[in-house]
Amino acid sequence: MTPEEEKKVLASSPVGTWVVMATYGVIFVVTWLAMYGLFLSRGPVH
Questions:
Q1: Which residues, at least 6 apart from 1, have a Cβ–Cβ distance to it below 8 Å?
Q2: Upper half-sphere CA count for residue 9 (Cβ side, 13 Å)
Q3: pLDDT in tens, 5-35
Q4: Cα–Cα–Cα angle for 19, 24, 25, nearest 5°?
Q5: What pLDDT, on a 0 to 100 scale, did the predictor assign at position 28?
Q6: Where are the beta strands (DSSP E) in the chain?
Q7: What is the Cα–Cα distance from 37 to 35, expressed in whole angstroms?
Q8: Is the torsion defined by CA of 3, 13, 27, 40 positive or negative?
């Protein structure tokens, strides 16, 4: 990798990191909603 290419890569935004963070965020929200729908919406334990 040339020094020019290295500077270009270091100056660009970390797109892959944002994609991974957004993917995990969506997975956590969907999982939380599924758990809420299955368990928490039924009320306290009897």
A1: 9
A2: 7
A3: 889 888 888 889 999 999 999 999 999 999 9
A4: 95
A5: 98
A6: none
A7: 5
A8: positive
